[in-house]
């Protein structure tokens, strides 16, 4: 199986329509996703000294980090508006093999930086709220 291109790992935001269409957040150079899960330990005397975990229990979440060059696209401006308002919106992660994940996310952090003679860049941190499911 060949390696997949990192350039094809896209972060998209819903346009607010029903049903939603998703717009790529332009200018991203790096994108990272982490799937997190808290465990529920159910170890008991008969566990033989080994830890037992309860399958399907605990809290699951998805974190998305991205960094890129600010282009002033509509999608980037929507992300900034949600960051300032502290509101949730629908996002989609798409991968080169055609797989997609969708869910509601909160902009946890949005940082801008720029040099005097360089482009303005930004970093973005999203945290899931509710299920993140294959689309």
Uncertain parts: none
Radius of gyration: 18 Å
Shape: elongated
The CATH topology corresponds to: Factor Xa Inhibitor
- H-E order: EEEEHEEEE
| Strand residues, percent | over 45%
Assign the CATH class.
Few Secondary Structures
Helix content: under 10%
The CATH architecture can be named as Irregular
What is the domain tally?
Answer: 1
Structural class: mainly beta
> Mean pLDDT across all residues, rounded?
91
Distance between the termini: 23 Å
Largest sheet: 8 strands, antiparallel
Let me know the number of strands: 8
Number of separate helices: 1
Keywords:
eight-stranded antiparallel β-sheet, elongated, Factor Xa Inhibitor, 135 residues, mainly beta, 1 helix
How does this structure look, described?
The chain is mainly β and 135 residues long. The model has no long low-confidence stretch (mean pLDDT 91). The protein is elongated, with a radius of gyration of 18 Å. Strands 1, 2, 3, 4, 5, 6, 7 and 8 form an 8-stranded antiparallel β-sheet that branches. It has one domain: Factor Xa Inhibitor (Irregular). It is built from 1 helix and 8 strands; from the N terminus they run ββββαββββ. It has one helix spanning 74-85, and strands at residues 10-14, 22-24, 28-37, 60-69, 88-94, 100-114, 120-128, 133-134.
